[in-house]
Amino acid sequence: MKRDAMADIVPAVRPRSRRLTPARIGVYGFLIMAALFFLVPLYVMLVTSVKPMDEIRLGNLFALPMSPTLAPWRSAWQSACTGLECEGIRGGFWNSVWITFPSMVLSIAVGAINGYALSFWRPRGANALFAVLMMGAFIPGQVMLYPLVRALAAVELYSTLPGIVLVHVIFGMPMMTLLFRNYYASLPEELFKAARVDGGGFWRIFFELMLPMSTPVIVVAAIMQVTNIWNDFLLGLVFAGSDNLPMTVQLNNIINTTTGERLYNVNMAATILTSLVPLALYFLSGRWFVRGIAAGAVKG
Amino acid sequence: MVAIRKNRAACWSAYIALLPMVLTVLGAYIGTMLWTARVSVSSARIFPTGDFVGLGQYERLFRNARWLLSLENLAIYGVLFVAGCLVLGFLLAVFIDQKVMGEGALRTVFLYPYAMSFVATGLVWQWILNPELGIQRVVRQLGFSDFTFDWIVDQDKALYTIVLATVWQASGLVMALLLSGLRGIDDELWKAARIDGIPVWRVYVSIVLPLLWPALSTALILLFALVIKLFDAVVAMTQGGPGTATEVPAKFIMDYLFGRANIGLASAASIVLLTTVVAIVAPLYYARAKAVQRGLK
Amino acid sequence: MNEATRRTRAIAAAVLATACAGTWAAPPAGPLKATVSHWWTSGGESAAIRQFADAFNAAGGQWIDQAVAGAEQSRASTTNRIVGGNAPVAAQFNTSRQFRDIVDQGLLNNLDDVAAKGNWDRILPQTIIDVIRINGHYYAAPVDIHMPAWFFYSKKAFAQARIKDEPRTWEEFIATLDKLKAAGLIPLAFGGQVWQEKIVFDAVFAQLGGPELFLKIYRDRDVKAVASPAFRNVLVAFRQLRAYTDPGAPGRNWNDATALVVSNRAGIQIMGDWAKGEFSAAGQVAGRDFGCFPGFGVKAPYIVAGDAFVFPKTSKPHVVAAQKLLATVMTAPGPQAAFSARKGSIPIRPDVDLSQLDMCARMGIAAMQDKARQLPNAEMLVEPDLNGALQDVLTNYWNRKQTPEQAQAAFAQAMKDNAW
Q1: pLDDT tens, B125-183?
Q2: How many folded domains does chain C comprise?
Q3: Which residues lie below 8 Å from residue A73, measured CB to CB, with a gap of 6+?
C-alpha cells in the first residue's frame, strides 16, 4: 500500500512516483534545515574530539583541526583515567549490557501487560492505581534514593545486579505502562471483543493477538528504555554495587572532574563512544517503523 | 453488540498480572512519598532524625528566593519546552512520513541527541551559545559586528537557551512517538480523503490529529515529566546561573539533598513540587478518564 | 530506623570499637583490603593517588579503588552507601564541616591511636586539627592542604601590559588590572559559577577585609560585623572586579578560564592551587611561563583548605586494621611528599622532602610556617547548608544590580535562617 507525496491538491494525474514538485522541495528543504540544526553540536563534538588540547584552548569552536589526531579516541576507550585505574571506559561496557538488557526486557514486559490489562480489562480500582503510578513519573529520581536504598538494603538487594534491574523496572513502569496503555487504547476494540467471543482468556489474547500487533510501540519503548538505562548514571552508581558499575560511571569519572585538568577531546570521544549502542539501536529500528500492521488486522 | 460476560478466571488473571504495578505503586511510590513527607517535618540534615518541627521547613522553603524563582522558571520553561517539542516533533514526524529518501538516516539524525549523555552535549551547547566562543563570535567574524546572541550569559534570557538545548534533545523522541502513531493510521483514510478532494493540510488537522491523540497524549505526559525532572541540562549548561537565573526545582532539591546536607528542606521541596504537579495534572486526568469511560478514545 | 535503635546500635558499636581499638588486631593472612572512595579521576589526580595506593600496597594492604568523579556526587555516594550498609573502608571528604553530621550520628571510626602514634597534635596545623578533632577524638586523616585563592598570572600577558612586579596591595592590584585592560587583554580570567564566585569573594575578603573580620563573620557569625562598613567595603571591592571580567565569563568552567591565562589572552586568575595541573598539562612551568602569589604582601593570609579521608564505622578487625594502616600510610612523610608533588597541594606536615614541590607550593609552605597567616577556609567554619546559602547571596549580588546594603542584609538573613 503505497501512498503519494503530500503534493497534489491539483486534480491532476496521481502518479505513484515522487515528482519534484514545489511542495516536495519544501519537504526536503525543511528536513535538511532541521537536520543541520540537529547536527551542529555533533559537528562540534567530532571536531573537538580530534583536536589536540592546544588547539582547543585557542577557543575556535567550529574550526577544523589543524593537526587532527585519533589519540583522544584511543585514550577514551582504553587509557583515560577513571580514578586510580587508567583503563578508559571499556571496563564498564559489559556491565552496562548486563544491566540494560534485562531491565529493558522486564520493564517493557511489565509495561505491556499493565497497559493491556488497563486498556481492555479495566479491573476495578486499577485506574485509580494507574493515576497514582503516573504521579510517580513526575518525581525526580533523587527524591526516592534514600528510602529505596533503605528498602533494598533491608531485602539484601542493595548493591546487586537484580537490585539495579528492579530499580530500573520500578522507575520505568509509569512511562512504559502509559505508552502501552495509550497504544492499546488506539486499537479497535472490536478486535478484543471478537477474541473474547472466540473464547480467548487473558493471557491467550495477550500473547496471540495483542503482542504481535504491538511492534511499533515496542520499538518506541525499546528506544526509550535502552537510552534511559544505558545512559543512566545515578541509579547505577547507587544501586548496582561496585562489581556491576555501568559504563556511565567511568564516563562520569572521565568527564566530570572537580579540580582536575579537563581533556575535552577525550571527553567528547568518550561521550560519542558511550552513545554508540543506543545510536545503533535507533538506526536498526527502522524496519519496524512501518505502517499498516493494525490496519491490516482490522481489514482481515 | 454481543454481551460479554467477563468470566471470573480471566478477571483474576488481570488482577494477578497487575500485581507488580500494585506493589510498585504502594511500596515504591506511595511509600517513598510518605517517607519524604515524614522527613519534611523534621530537622534532618544528612541523615533522618526522629524529631518533629512542624511546618518549619516549609516556612523556610517559601522564604527562600531561590526556590520561588525555580518554580517560576519551571513554569516558563515548561510551557516553552512542551510547545517546542510538540510542534517540532510533529512537523518532523509528518515530513519524514512523506516517503522521503534516506528516511533511516534522517531519523537517526533527529534521534541521536537523545542517545547522548547531556553532560557532554550540554557543555557543547554552552560553548556554542557563549558569546566569546560560539555563534556570536563566528557571526561577528563574518562581518556582522553588531550581532549579539548572548542569551546564555543574560539573567533574563538564559532560561531560553535551556529550552533550545532540551528541545534539541527531546524532539527526536516525540518524533518517534508520533511517527509510530502516524504509521498506524490506515491508508484507506488517505485514499478516501483524497477522493473526496479534501486538501492535505485539512486531512492532517481534522482527521489525523484526532487519530493521533493517544500518541500525542503520551508525548504530552512524557514531556511534562521531563520538565519536572529537568536537572542534567541545567547543571551541564549553566549550573543554575548566571547567578540563580536558571534555577529549577529538581536542582534545588538535589543541591539540598546532598551538597548542602539538608534532607529536611529537600523533602519539603519535593512534597511541594509533587503537590503542585498533582494539583495541575489531576483535574486534567480526571476529565480525560471520564471521557475515556464514555467510550471516546 | 528510630532513635532507640540508633542509640543502641551506636553504643554497641562504640563498645566493640573500644574493645578493638586498644589492640592492633593481628591481620589475617593476606593483604588488608581497603575499598577507597574518592573523587580524584583526572590524569594528574590519578598519578597523585597512585602514590598512596602504592605505599599502602607495599605496607601490606590492598587498595581497591572506587572513585566517583564530582565531589558532591562522591560524597552523596558515600552517604548512600553508609545508609545502605555497604560503606567503603575509607571515603574522601574535604577538611571541612561536611562530615560533622556523620560523626554526630556515630557512624565513623575514630583514629585516636593513629593520631597519637603520628604526633598529629604537634605536626598538623591548628586549623586542620580544629576540623578533624571532634569532641576530643580524631575522625579524619588529612592528606593535603589546598589553598583556594591563589593569584595566577601569565608572564607574557604581564610583559605585554608592561607590568613589572606582582601587586603587593589591593590598590596595586587594581592598577595591574587596569594596565591589562589597557593592553587589550582580559584582566581577570573568570568563570561565572557559584563556587568560583565564592572563591574570588573569599580571596577579596581575606586580603582586603583581613583575617579578624573573616573569622568574626564566618566563625563567630557576628551579625553586627556583617553590617559593618568594613564588610561593606569588601562587597564593593568584590563587585568592582566584575568590570575586569569578559562577557563570556558566566557559566564558564574554571579550566576554560585557566586556558585563557595559559594562552596569554588573560592576565590573572584567582583559583586554587589545583589549577597548576592545567598549566602543567599545557607544558607550562611555574616561574617561567606563569607566576603565582598567595596574596598581597608578606603578611597576606593563607587560606587553608584540603582533603581528608574518613573511616566509616565497622568493628571487623581486619577492616579496622586496614583503616589504621591506610591512615598511617597516607599521613607518612614519604607518601605525603610524593602525593603533593603530583597533586599541586602542599603536604600536611612540614617535615617532608620539599625538593619535589614546585615554586608555588614552596611559597605556600613558607607562608604556612607563619602561624599567624593561616586562615581556615569558610567551609571549615560554616556548615554546608549555610555555606550554600551564603553562596546564593553572593551570586545574586554579583549577577544582579544589588546594592552592597542589600547584600549585607541578605547575608545576615541567611545566617539567621540557618541557625536550626
Answers
A1: 999 998 888 889 888 888 888 888 889 888 889 999 999 999 999 999 899 888 888 88
A2: 2
A3: A49, A50, A269, A273
Superfamily of domain B73-248: MetI-like (1.10.3720.10)
Statement to judge: residues C254 and C311 lie in one domain:
no
> CB of C48 within 8 A of CB of C330?
no
* Cβ contacts of A45 on chain B, cutoff 8 Å: 120-121, 124
pTM attached to this predicted model: 0.87
Q: Into how many domains does chain A fold? A: 2
**Shortest Cα distance, chain C CAs vs residue B20, angstroms:** 24
Find the mean pLDDT for residues A171-193. Answer: 88
Q: Residue type for C308, please?
A: A
> Are residues C380 and C316 located together in one domain of the fold?
no
Range of the domain at A41: 22-69
C287 lies in the same domain as C346: no
Give residues 190 to 229 of C whose Cβ lies within 8 Å of B: 192-194
What pLDDT, on a 0 to 100 scale, did the predictor assign at position C3? Answer: 57
Per residue in C92-116, pLDDT (tens digit) is: 999 999 999 899 999 999 999 999 9
Per-residue model confidence as pLDDT tens digits over A27-80 = 899 999 999 999 999 999 999 999 999 988 888 889 899 999 999 999 999 999
**Chain C contact set for B159 (CB, 8 A):** none
- In this structure, the strands spanning C32-37 and C90-94 are parallel
Q: Is residue C79 within 8 angstroms of chain B, CB to CB?
A: yes
Please, which residues have CB within 8 angstroms of residue A259's CB and are 6 or more apart in sequence?
Answer: C45, C71, C146, C272, C274, C277
Q: Does C194 touch chain A (CB under 8 A)?
A: no
What are the structural domain ranges in chain B? 73-248
| A125-148 average pLDDT score | 84
Q: Is C154 left (phi over 0), alpha (psi -120 to 50) or beta?
A: beta
Same domain flag for C157 and C126:
no
Round to whole Å and give the CA distance between B273 and C309: 36
Residues A150 and A205 occupy one common structural domain: yes
Are A116 and A249 in a shared domain? yes
Residue type at position B233: A
A174 and A57 within one domain: no
- Residues of the domain holding C297: 150-303+376-417
Across the interface, whether the CB atoms of C395 and B152 are under 8 A apart is answered no
Shortest distance between the Cα of A261 and any Cα of chain C, in A, equals 5
C-alpha cell at C34: 581497603
Q: Are residues A35 and A153 in the same domain?
A: no
Contact C107, C76 (CB under 8 A): no
- C136: number of Cβ within 10 Å: 7
CATH code of residue C68: 3.40.190.10
Contacting subunits of A (3+ beta carbon pairs below 8 A):
B, C
